[in-house]
């Protein structure tokens, strides 16, 4: 049966007013912050650059470790439910992106193509995006056989041979998603064991179409001549060429923290905060994958979203 | 019935902002078209949610004149027509995130509201060569609606721009023809392409490169 996404609900909102809290990014963390802030009856604006909410969550075919849902929930469904809940609780959603910020005053200013948005408090939940391997041949073949999204592009590799590169939860889960389409998958990881949860490792070892290549690094992607696609790997002390049709790369993430480089404290590109999600600037909070921390999951993102909204509300109450 | 009560009421609410009447011209085929019948039913359900949206159905094989008039070359197809024909087409039943493309297409055609900057508009006003954008998408691709609306808005503003939105999972041979192995993927005048959900200035630069 079909499902239908409606895309983000653009709210009819006057952006010249001063908001209590503006949340940047509508992934699970931002959406949860919006639900909580709305329930505190704060004037809450959620800004999302894409036409659909959900962030990275929207690209996950099956979410298996979000409490209350077994194996049946898709990331896009979960994201849409969260979005509905945010709107129901009174948050406004605006499609747009932040060009730069000014956090120096009591009233924070966010520059967008639609104009300057003013707010008393800010929650940054801009998330992250897939990290590139940065090897020769990768950049020029994005969308030409190199992909970072299994649900988006998997159907273009029906009965094909592909490689998945990575060893974490995302890499292994997406490999399982891709077995729906590809006839053969090389799962390539540079270490001698996967980092993914043991339960996913147990599951993936039962799938005959997957060939495991541990202790293997990919040196080059060569999709050049005559549409002959191959990759060069280094395994068991020697170089080896593998002929295939596509490569899916899941080797971690890079935080979307660029607009905040000058204003906030960062560690390895991620924004640092205390356990209440407070950053180094009063009234500015951070939650989700863009925050410096050890575990990045939907569950930790929503928990931090709630905490960030709680802290923002506390800050605003004390200021009044 | 495809759309549940809650989804219908959400769409109804959004359709309150529509201005010009919109006709969804559906092209269908009796046999050898897996999703033609469902596509027609879906579009009819959507049209019931606003007085401003209506449906006209043509047969791809027998209504040759209409096929020619709307420039349809495959089914299922939907032409989103407003005051005039802005050249916006959807190929394949729009499910998942492709449904956003239908709703946004209706909104863009019916209202004059776009996210285009004055610079974009200036470029489009001066564009004097035919520009055919074919945006390959898939129902599970959350990045796709952004690429789709860029093409649809450009078509809405310029009579030179045509925007075909094509579900690559329903037209795999066409995707293969254009070497699409990742979506969104925008083919420009058959000869060049832009990968990913690129902003308007990037698409404009690519069009310039292609037209030169």
Question: What would you note in describing this structure?
Answer:
The complex is a heterodimer of chains A (320) and B (212). With 320 residues, chain A is an alpha/beta fold. Chain A has two domains: 18-129 and 253-319, FAD/NAD(P)-binding domain, CATH 3.50.50; 132-249, FAD/NAD(P)-binding domain. Chain A is built from six helices and 19 strands. In chain A, helix 2 links the parallel strand 2 and strand 3. In chain A, helix 1 (28-39) packs parallel to helix 2 and helix 1 (28-39) runs parallel beside helix 6 (298-319). The N and C termini of chain A lie far apart (52 Å). Chain B starts with a helix and ends with a helix. The mean pLDDT of chain B is 96. The chains are: A alpha/beta (320), B alpha/beta (212). The A-B interface holds A 2-7, 9, 50-52, 54, 58-59, 61, 76, 95, 113, 142-147, 149, 151-153, 155-158, 245-246 and B 2-3, 7, 10-11, 14, 38, 42, 93, 95-97, 99-100, 103-104, 115, 117, 138, 140-146, 149, 168-169, 172, 175, 179-183, 185, 195-197.
Q: What would CATH call the class of the largest domain in chain B? A: Alpha Beta
Strand content of chain B: 15-25%
Give the tally of β-strands of chain B.
Answer: 8
- List segments of chain A where confidence is low: pLDDT < 50 over at least 5 consecutive residues: none
Helical proportion of chain B, percent range: 25-40%
Q: Compute the number of structural domains of chain B.
A: 2
Question: What would you call the structural class of chain A?
Answer: alpha/beta
Instruction: Write down the CATH topology of the largest domain in chain A.
Output: FAD/NAD(P)-binding domain
